[in-house]
Specification:
Length: 99
């Protein structure tokens, strides 16, 4: 059983990080407010999880101004996509083993 858990990525164990990566896997870029609304989280909660994923280089951040208002957008990096796909594959293997 231990070998089934070895490929689970601890950075995606939290439901918010799992949600962030799920959203980013199917979108090119997602802005902060859209992500916050989609996941129903607070500004601080989202920011801290994004910072953690950015620190792992799983998420790329782009900050800019639109009509003199700050706009922050995110996308999954190639490494982030690969890590998340491996995590999902490990989850699927774990689920199928229990059948």
């Amino acid at each position: 059983m231990k070998e089934l858990l070895i490929n689970l990525n601890k950075h995606f164990e939290n439901r918010i990080r799992l949600g962030i990566m799920s959203v980013l896997m199917v979108n090119d870029w997602v802005d902060f407010n859209s992500m916050k609304e989609t996941l129903s989280v607070t500004d601080g909660n989202l920011a801290s999880h994004m910072k953690a994923l950015e620190g792992e280089r799983y998420v790329e951040v782009k900050k800019q101004f639109i009509d003199k208002k700050p706009n922050t957008t995110y996308r999954a990096t190639i490494d982030g996509r690969k890590a998340f796909e491996e995590h999902l594959a490990a989850l699927e293997k774990l689920i199928n083993t229990g059948r």
